[in-house]
Structures are given as structure tokens and as C-alpha cells.
């Protein structure tokens, strides 16, 4: 066998050495205008992330995804498991928004707003740079990570991961319950304590060890990029026409070589890249559009007194000198669909009743013939009270008049309660056609909300 066929390049993946070991990346810091803007936005997003579970709208948390109680509260609106349509519309609108944003602005989410990028670049890496002695311009550790530095680094990582884990959990259990968990001894609530401990360990694992691998290996968004982007989407792009042929600046020459492109092959755009790629090789799945290479290259161009933007926000067509099209099918179709879905969502939320009702047949025989010949159908009515306060309901027959109802117990529900009640529907046998009788029932709540449900009674 020809062994050279199996030879791997030095870096199979940007984070993998030829021998299969992890290649640790220590991206060099390039604090240019984009980095400053990203840092401001990053701190604002961190403040928002930390404060959202504490903010209350109409007496409810701004965001609470209570999986145990199966209630999702978002900006004053509460969604219950019965809101299948609303939740589906919400999900579709989120997906369409992501599609539209990516078609227009590329991976702007990844580079500017994704928590993975924000926390890694503006919380964890600055601590690391401080303790590794690389806070000036970044890069590989300059001091030995032994002794107090080692403990300080991992101690800080642990504290921050714990704070992050608690904030993250507050979105799922609420700040009040979380505060109670924190106050109690772990022995009094081992389950929640375990959840907090596991979440902290996962945060540590991600931000201390896994890092860019999450974007490169685990996150599906980068993989979808090729279908979500088109040649006119905004991307971070290297201007090959201007930069090539690249070549180092000859310090001995008084003037720049006119046959040479603007790229001086300094490699700073690669050294600063948090995913370790070379943007000069074109658009790549690993590029999270963090703009660090733009800042690095702009600093080089400033020193060389050449125009900025050798690496810049552009599109694949524009960077190749082709005309840029703003209006294309996907930027018309996505907003149109989005407007329809948001319209439907708004309409459904606005016309949502204070309760839900589902009519079910009882288990066992479909009908019973009573002593006086009446046909009785045992039904179950499932009611969901969406209100914070208790409510009572009445149920009547709209049609046909021959049907009568008998409730096993009053239809009363507590705050946000779901309950199933027994119901007996009766009619004379002559009303049934081919063993069936269609009936229409009306349920009215104490506060006047009304729902009409159809029901099929079975008979001889
Ligand atoms: S190529 Fe540039 S924009 Fe893309 S991830 Fe690397 S530094 Fe960020
Ligand atoms: S930073 Fe700019 S000049 Fe330096 S290698 Fe990258 S593209 Fe070329």
C-alpha cells in the first residue's frame, strides 16, 4: 500500500493536529472598531440575559420556561401545552426570522450576539489573558500556568460558570424558586442541587475546554449556512482582487512593489481568528463572522497607509466585482411568509379565550339504554383555566333540543388548573340516524368567555 496516500496535512481540522491531538487556539487580540462595538453590545446582552428573569411584566416574569409545569411565559404572555397552534406559529416565525437575517446579514448572530461568542470572547478569554500574561495582544501563554495563577484562573472560571448556570436555570424555574434552592442546604433538595451542579460543570466544560469546537462541530447553524446564504448575503470576505498576489513588504525597498497586492502576508488575520481559519481561502463553514480578522487587517493597512477594508463586510458577488443584488427571491419570500405567520400569531393571541375545552368520550360501552328507553352517552369534558384566578363554567346544549345534559360535579377550576369532568348526555332513540346524533354544546365561563364544541352521540 502506498502510505503517502494516508498522509494527512499538518492541520486536518483547524483544531486538530496531524497526530489527532487537540490544537489549542489562543487567538491574538485585535482591538479595532468592530471589536469595540462588539464588546459594548456583548456587555449589553450579558446585562439583558442576567436581568430578564428578574423583570416582571403584568406580575409575571418576562421570560419563564417552566418545563415541570408545562407553562411558557414570554413578555407577559403565557403559553400552555394546549396552545399547540400558537407554539407552532411562534417556532415558525423564529425560524423564518433566522432565515431572513442570515440571507441578509450572514452569520451576524454568531459573531455579535450568540451567548457562546459573547461569554467566551468578553468574559472567559479576558480572564485567561490577564492571568496568562497576554492581555496586551493575546496569543499563546507567556507565563507558566502553575501555582496561584492556575488556582486563580480555574477558581474564577468556576465562580463565573456557577453564576451563569444559576442565571440560565432562573429561566426554567424562576428567580424565587432558585433563591430558595440557594438558601437551602443541598441535603434538603438533592435533586435541584444536582441540576445546578451539572449545569455548572457543563458551562465549565463548554467555555474552558470545548470552546470553538461547539461552533465547529456541535452547532447545526454553521452547517446550514451553505443553504441559508446566497451570493449576495453579507459575509466577512477577503478582497482577493486587491490583496493578491500577496507578498511580504521588503523593508529595504523605498517604495512598495507595484506588482504586488495589498496583502503583506503578515498572517495576523489567521492569528486573531478564534476558529483558526484563514479567511483568505474564501468563505468557510468555520467562519463565525466575528470580524476579528477585519480589525487585524485594518490595523496592518493603517500602518502601511493603504485603504482599510482588505478584509471587510461584503458579499461573494460584490467582492468578486460583480453587481450586488438586494432584491432576490429569498428576501421577498421570507418576509412575506414571516408577515403572514406573525399576522396569524397576533390574531390568535388577540382572540384567545380565557379557557380551553376538549370533549372526550368516556371509556367502556359507547352508550347505555336506560330503563325508560333513553339513550345515555357518558362523556368527559376537559377544561383548562388560563387565568391566574379561579373560574366557574356552565355547559348547555345549543342543538338539538332533544339532548339533555347531566353534570357529575360542578365545573369549577382553580388558578391555571386543568381538570376533566364527567358528563352524561341523553336523548330519545328516535333522534338517532344510523346510530349517530350530532349535538352542539356551549360552555360559558363566569367572566363571559364562550366556546362552542361539536359532539357526536352514539345510539342504536
Ligand atoms: S475568519 Fe475572520 S470573521 Fe471568520 S471567524 Fe475568523 S476572525 Fe472571525
Ligand atoms: S491581516 Fe491583512 S495583510 Fe495580513 S495576512 Fe491577513 S489579509 Fe494579508
Strand content: 15-25%
Largest sheet: 5 strands, antiparallel
Oligomer: single chain
Number of structural units classed as domains = 3
Report how far apart the termini are.
Answer: 81 Å
Proportion of helical residues: 25-40%
Regions with pLDDT < 50 over 5+ consecutive residues?
A: none
Small molecules held by this entry: iron/sulfur cluster
Number of helices: 14
Mean pLDDT across the residues is: 89
**Number of DSSP E strands:** 18
> Per the principal axes of the C-alpha atoms, what is the gross shape?
elongated
**Structural class, please?**
alpha+beta
Radius of gyration based on Cα positions:
31 Å
Chain-wise SSE layout:
Layout: E1 11-13, E2 16-17, H1 33-51, E3 56-57, E4 60-61, E5 63-66, E6 71-74, E7 77-79, H2 84-105, H3 108-113, H4 115-132, H5 148-173, H6 175-183, H7 190-210, H8 213-218, H9 220-228, E8 235-238, H10 240-243, H11 268-271, H12 292-304, E9 311-314, H13 316-319, H14 329-350, E10 355-361, E11 368-369, E12 375-385, E13 391-399, E14 404-407, E15 411-413, E16 418-427, E17 436-445, E18 450-458
Antiparallel strand pairs: 1-2, 3-4, 5-6, 6-7, 8-9, 10-12, 11-12, 12-16, 13-15, 13-17, 14-16, 17-18
Helix pairs in contact: 1-4, 2-14, 4-5, 5-6, 5-7
Bound molecules: iron/sulfur cluster (SF4) (2 copies).
One iron/sulfur cluster binds next to helix 12.
Amino acid at each position: 500500500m502506498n502510505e503517502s496516500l494516508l498522509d494527512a496535512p499538518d492541520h486536518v481540522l483547524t483544531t486538530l493536529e496531524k497526530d489527532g491531538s487537540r490544537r489549542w487556539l489562543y487567538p491574538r487580540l485585535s482591538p479595532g472598531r468592530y471589536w469595540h462595538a462588539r464588546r459594548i453590545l456583548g456587555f449589553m446582552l450579558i446585562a439583558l440575559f442576567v436581568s430578564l428573569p428578574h423583570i416582571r411584566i403584568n406580575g409575571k416574569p418576562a421570560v419563564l420556561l417552566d418545563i415541570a409545569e408545562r407553562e411558557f411565559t414570554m413578555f407577559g404572555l403565557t403559553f400552555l401545552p394546549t396552545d399547540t397552534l400558537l407554539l407552532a406559529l411562534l417556532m415558525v416565525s423564529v425560524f423564518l426570522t433566522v432565515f431572513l437575517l442570515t440571507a441578509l446579514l450572514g452569520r451576524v448572530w454568531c459573531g455579535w450576539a450568540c451567548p457562546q461568542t459573547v461569554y467566551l470572547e468578553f468574559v472567559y478569554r479576558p480572564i485567561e489573558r490577564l492571568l496568562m500574561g497576554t492581555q496586551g495582544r493575546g496569543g499563546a501563554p507567556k507565563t507558566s500556568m502553575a501555582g496561584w495563577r492556575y488556582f486563580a484562573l480555574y477558581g474564577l472560571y468556576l465562580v463565573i460558570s456557577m453564576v451563569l448556570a444559576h442565571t440560565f436555570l432562573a429561566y426554567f424555574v424562576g428567580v424565587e424558586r432558585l433563591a430558595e434552592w440557594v438558601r437551602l442546604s443541598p441535603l434538603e433538595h438533592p435533586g435541584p442541587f444536582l441540576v445546578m451542579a451539572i449545569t455548572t460543570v457543563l458551562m465549565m466544560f463548554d467555555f474552558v475546554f470545548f470552546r470553538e469546537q461547539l461552533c465547529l462541530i456541535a452547532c447545526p447553524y454553521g452547517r446550514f449556512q451553505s443553504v441559508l446564504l446566497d451570493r449576495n448575503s453579507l459575509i466577512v470576505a477577503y478582497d482577493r482582487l486587491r490583496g493578491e498576489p500577496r507578498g511580504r513588504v521588503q523593508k529595504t525597498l523605498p517604495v512598495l512593489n507595484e506588482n504586488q497586492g495589498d496583502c503583506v502576508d503578515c498572517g495576523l488575520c489567521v492569528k486573531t481568528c478564534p476558529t483558526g481559519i484563514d479567511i483568505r481561502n474564501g468563505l468557510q463553514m468555520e467562519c463565525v463572522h466575528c470580524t476579528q480578522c477585519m480589525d487585524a487587517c485594518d490595523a496592518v493597512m493603517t500602518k502601511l497607509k493603504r485603504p482599510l477594508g482588505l478584509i471587510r463586510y461584503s458579499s461573494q458577488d460584490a467582492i468578486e466585482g460583480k453587481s450586488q443584488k438586494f432584491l432576490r427571491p429569498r428576501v421577498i419570500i421570507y418576509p412575506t411568509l414571516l408577515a403572514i405567520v406573525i399576522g396569524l400569531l397576533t390574531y390568535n393571541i388577540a382572540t384567545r379565550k380565557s379557557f380551553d375545552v376538549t370533549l372526550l368520550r368516556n371509556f367502556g360501552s359507547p352508550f347505555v339504554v336506560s330503563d325508560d328507553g333513553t339513550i345515555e352517552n357518558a362523556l368527559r369534558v376537559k377544561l383548562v383555566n388560563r387565568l391566574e384566578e379561579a373560574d366557574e363554567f356552565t355547559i348547555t346544549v345549543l342543538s338539538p333540543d332533544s339532548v339533555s345534559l347531566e353534570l357529575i360535579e360542578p365545573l369549577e377550576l382553580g388558578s391555571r388548573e386543568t381538570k376533566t369532568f364527567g358528563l352524561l348526555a341523553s336523548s330519545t332513540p328516535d333522534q338517532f340516524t344510523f346510530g349517530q346524533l350530532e349535538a352542539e354544546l356551549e360552555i360559558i365561563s363566569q367572566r363571559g368567555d364562550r366556546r362552542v364544541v361539536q359532539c357526536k352521540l352514539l345510539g342504536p
